[in-house]
Amino acid sequence: MKWNSYLCGYQSFLQLERSLSRNTIKAYLHDVQRLIQYLEVSGEDLQPAQVELHHLQSFLKWVTELGLTARSQSRLISGLKSFYKYLLLENLLVNDPTELLDAPNIGRKLPVVLTIEEIDALIGAIDLSKPGGERNKAIIETLYGCGLRVSELVNLKLSSLYFQEGFIRVIGKGDKERLVPIGKTAQKQIMIYLDTVRRFQQIKRGHEEILFLNRRGARLTPVMIFTIIKDLAQKAGIRKNISPHTFRHSFATHLVEGGADLRAVQEMLGHESITTTEIYTHLDREYLRSTIIQYHPRK
What we know:
The chain is mainly alpha-helical. The protein folds into 2 domains: 86 residues, Tyrosine recombinase, N-terminal domain (DNA polymerase, domain 1, Orthogonal Bundle), CATH 1.10.150; 180 residues, hpI Integrase, Chain A (Orthogonal Bundle), CATH 1.10.443.10. The protein is 56% helix and 4% strand. It has a 3-stranded antiparallel β-sheet. Strand 1 and strand 2 form a beta hairpin. Helix 1 runs antiparallel to helix 2 and helix 5 crosses helix 9.
């Protein structure tokens, strides 16, 4: 089978047209390579345009028998659909065999969310007298105040702060840029950190533009942020299994609960699809349900 030329073209499409990250492109290519592997094992000498729905259904049965979970199968199908969409765009085939390919029903697990009181308790557990205290408070206020991914936080630059306009510039997934509103509380804490901590640090070469630094003057890693949050949760007595992403979920949930427009929340989070953002409407309903169970006399 001569799939290499198709894969090379697909890779260029993902890089140039969709501007996806290296890891995402690698995952998409791997999805197609798994299909190629199956066709070789089953003795099917087919070109992409010759693959039909029944071949793909047999392929999914094969990966299921190999132990691939429903969630992983769903992601695999998404990758194959993307590949065949590219082939259609390039007029390399007429019919898309993935069009009627159904993803397994994996359900939607609602993410862990902190209440406003829990966030206050977590921030209150920060010891501002210790090295890193003011920085850690600024980190939590920024995560929760702007709904950032941890990768966006650790790569945030001084030149991306537009406090006068009330925005920060964020580079998200696929190197896509967006402007995110930042409130007065987060702005104030960042300025305290800059004025009382960062300005006195010896900054490692190449990290001069990075906002949040470790004690050696270098960029923090996502693992460091995770550790900071886990330690604070323990001190605050929060038993929920939280991570940096929990603040992003909390940011979105509290906005939706407060009546924010879903499209505005989508824009702030940098979600490509509104479907991803819609999970927070489910969270809102779950919050209402749990409130009724807790407080209604006929629960």
